[in-house]
Amino acid sequence: MKKNIFISLIIFSFLTSCVLEKDLDGLWIGAYSEDKSLEDYHSSTIQKVVKFDDSNYKIYGVEKMYGKNQEGEFRMLFGKLNFDFDNYVNYRIVNINEDSLVLNLPNNKYLIEVFKKIPNEFKIDQSKKIELIGNSYTLKHDFGIDTLYFKSDSIVVRTNKYRKASKYYQRYNLDGFNILLIDDFDEIPLILTDINSGNIDVMAFHKKRYKWKLILE
């Protein structure tokens, strides 16, 4: 009897893992993280994109800040997502559906990271070339107004009413998606979806989906 239960658990775990691995396939962009152990917790942004393909993964970030992008194999077991770096790091899957992945980070049951699956509608026409270097843009968004001056291929100067700061950034063209990551604690990753007369349409995810525009100055 105990042997049959054990075998059933193994089969159930295997089938569940296969379903989840298939569900994970695609590109997931960082939306926000929260530490609910803090009395006045607030949401922080996540400047990274994760690509899952079968049992392989690659994590894209701002390499000037965090070094080479990590890649390798992952596995699913008993509701945990196991990456093969640092002798396997286990993230508990809090929730997964067709457009959201919520992970509980290791060693802190209160800390979660939320990723959003990038829908195909956000792919950009590959014939449209977007050059940022040397250009300055005004970004009017739900939280205020920023000016972004792309000083080089890795440095952007961000100016608003609170501060002026130089930050590292990185662009990625992944599977038809044009993605802009800026290394700043409150900078939401941007998906560049179109360009007309120098102005760039962008989409972003945080607690909800946003549609903004980079206005060329």
Spell out the blueprint of helices and strands.
Blueprint: H1 2-24, E1 26-35, E2 49-53, E3 56-60, H2 63-66, E4 70-77, E5 80-83, E6 89-96, E7 100-104, E8 111-117, E9 136-141, E10 144-150, E11 155-159, E12 164-174, E13 177-182, E14 190-196, E15 199-205, E16 209-216
Antiparallel strand pairs: 1-2, 1-8, 2-3, 3-4, 4-5, 5-6, 6-7, 7-8, 9-10, 9-16, 10-11, 11-12, 12-13, 13-14, 14-15, 15-16
Keywords:
12% helix, 217 residues, Lipocalin, 2 domains, globular, 8-stranded antiparallel barrel, single chain, disordered N terminus, mainly beta
Commentary on this structure:
The protein has 217 residues and is mostly beta strands. The protein folds into two domains: 2-117, Lipocalin; 121-216. It is built from two helices and 16 strands. The strands form two sheets. Strands 1-2-3-4-5-6-7-8 form an eight-stranded antiparallel beta barrel. It is globular and about 50 Å long. It starts with a helix and ends with a strand.
Tell me the strand order in the biggest sheet: 1-2-3-4-5-6-7-8
Alpha plus pi helix count: 2
Form type: globular
Mean pLDDT: 85
Radius of gyration: 19 Å
Runs in which pLDDT lies below 50 for 5 or more consecutive residues are 1-19
CATH architecture of the largest domain: Beta Barrel
Give the class from helix and strand content and strand pairing.
mainly beta
Q: How would you sum up the major sheet?
A: 8 strands, antiparallel, barrel
CATH domain class of the largest domain: Mainly Beta
In quaternary terms, these chains amount to single chain
User: Per CATH, what is the topology of the largest domain?
Assistant: Lipocalin
Proportion of helical residues: 10-25%
C-alpha termini separation = 73 Å
